[in-house]
Amino acid sequence: MRFTARVFAAVLLLASPSFAKSIPLDEASVADLNAAFAAGTLTSEKLVELSLARIAAYDRQGPAVRAVITLNPKALETARALDAERKAGKVRGPLHGIPVVLKDNYNTTDMQTTGGSILLEGSLPPADAYIVKRLREAGAIILAKVNMSEFASSSTNSSLGGQSRNPHDLTRTPAGSSGGSGVAIAAAYATLGFGSDTSGSIRGPASVNGVVGMKPTTGLLSRSGIIPLSLTFDTGGPFARNVADIAVALGLLTGVDRADALTKTSTGKFEKDYVKFLKPGALKGARIGIARDFMKQDEDVDWIIEAALETMKREGATIVDVKFPKWMMDSRGEFYSTVRNAEFALQIGDYLATLKPEYPKSLAEMIERGKRVTSRRADGAGANPPRWTLFEEELKAGNQPEYVYTSVRDHGLPLMRASVQGLFAAEKLDAIVYPTSPRRPGPIVVTPGGGGGGGQSATNIASLTGFPDLIVPAGFTGDDLPVSISFMGTAYSEPRILALGFAFEQATHARRLPVNTPTLAGEMIEVP
Fold it and tell me: What is the spatial distance between Cα 95 and Cα 136, in angstroms, rounded to a whole number?
């Protein structure tokens, strides 16, 4: 038989009908999923079914990681409708038909928004959060509302959702306050997750659960419709299993929102497409500062961070040791708590005023109602003494002399920003890196104050300045616990730190599916 070029091409086509590659669900990016949608090897309905199967297998059964508070009963119905749109030739964008999870402090009119608290159980707010509205318009499917530190403070143990668990080690903390989002993305419940960050609440959970997370510049994304903790520091932000998906999500959500005046500061500075900045060679020629003051707390973590620095050097970066001023290191905790505690007492009242009459209308009323809860229900919901005890401190802070708060807000925080900005300029830095969690995730311990990954971290420096911070998996400790590295930039430098984080990710590929939530049958995605 004589093989012509046409015959040879036909033989290849028969041997590999679509030239497809099979990708595990947890490794499939937004781009991969869109390629599979376009090729007809995947539908949104099937993708949601896979997500629901993982939740059924792992959230209350098996390892019982308890990430989900509320499942969307219309998720499959929405997926079918979006599949019909796609078939009719209408594709809204890269998130069309993609399942996402939301921290349960994002307002959703069709699903309860509780802040993790039985005090707000069943609450249906009057309007979607701005980010939620944008996600729906983009064709994303709200799959679930997920657990969190109650009212975004303390560890990820809430009166409504109970204790979430780290899928890498069920005895270890998932961190807080966006712990449910970190767990859900690590366990591949959804492609994207969204949390809020005030002093590390996206970054801690991203780090200890071994996924990518981003605290954007404060003001880049609207906070409208997110239950506030402290609006001076609060921001929403995305979780994903790769940097490219963070870039996709971020570009779809930027813009000025009239309901959040701070977003006006992003005018002329935000991008609608951050993916275009992602280049594997972005570390070449970069100057990276390493904040070693946040090391020497865990030998395994230090080993991974030093290896990460060596990787950056091999990729062409220059590494520069940097130090934050002693006054900043000494005062950063007090600056944060002074502003955060005072603001919550007032701002939670503003939020509660938007809810239906049966819900509490002030922090004082939440304290009073909490004292009526003395036993745990059959579903595990019940009192949360560590968080509710903190209510008392927050109420006192809200009643302190105004100058205590305004002196820090109006003078201390600008001083912080100017100092860190000056450090970047003096050393000509593209980013400052540090271990997001300087110690490996510790055992689950419910404490009033916080839920970070462990150790004294630089996360609150990014919060106090309002600067962006990207978290990228860097490796694992000797006992197989995730270690991440933070790329902190200056205001609105998201394009640069996303590029650097992407280049580092492509050089290392340090993420993996947690051992307690392994691949299920039928989860391979066929991509052309």
Answer: 9
Q: What is the pLDDT of residues 353-391, one digit of tens each?
A: 999 999 999 999 999 999 999 888 998 899 999 999 999
Q: Strand 469-476 relative to strand 482-488: parallel, antiparallel, unpaired? A: antiparallel
> pTM of the full predicted structure?
0.95
Distances (CA, A) of 306 to 139, 428, 434: 41, 21, 10
Cα 59 versus chain centre, distance: 19
**Letter for the amino acid at 435?**
P
As annotated, the active-site residues are 103, 177, 201
User: Do you find a cis peptide bond into 224, omega within 30 degrees of 0?
Assistant: no
d(CA 461, CA 328): 9
CA nearest to 142, candidates 103, 102, 105? 102
Q: Which of 434, 438, 452, 439 is nearest to 488 (CA)?
A: 434
Query: Which structural domains are found in the chain, ordered by start?
Result: 23-372+380-517 (3.90.1300.10)
∠ CA(349), CA(113), CA(129), 5° rounding? 80
Summarize pLDDT for 61-118 with one digit per residue, the tens: 999 999 999 999 999 999 999 999 999 999 999 999 999 999 999 999 999 999 999 9
Do β-strands 431-435 and 524-527 pair in parallel, antiparallel, or remain unpaired?
A: unpaired
What string of DSSP letters covers 437-489? Answer: SSS---B----SS---SSS--SHHHHHHHT--EEEEEEEE-TTS-EEEEEEE-
Which segments of 16-65 does DSSP mark as H helices, in order?
30-39, 44-58
Long-range contacts of 406-409 (CB under 8 A, 24+ apart): 408/335, 408/338, 408/339, 409/232, 409/339
CB hemisphere CA count around 30 (13 angstroms): 26
Judge contact between 156 and 186, C-beta under 8 A.
Answer: no
333 Cβ contact partners less than 8 Å away, ≥ 6 residues apart:
460
Which candidate, 449, 346, 349, 342, places its Cα nearest to that of 397? Answer: 342
- Name which of 39, 77, 71 is nearest 52 in CA terms: 71
User: What residues pair up with 102 in beta bridges, in sequence order?
Assistant: 145, 194
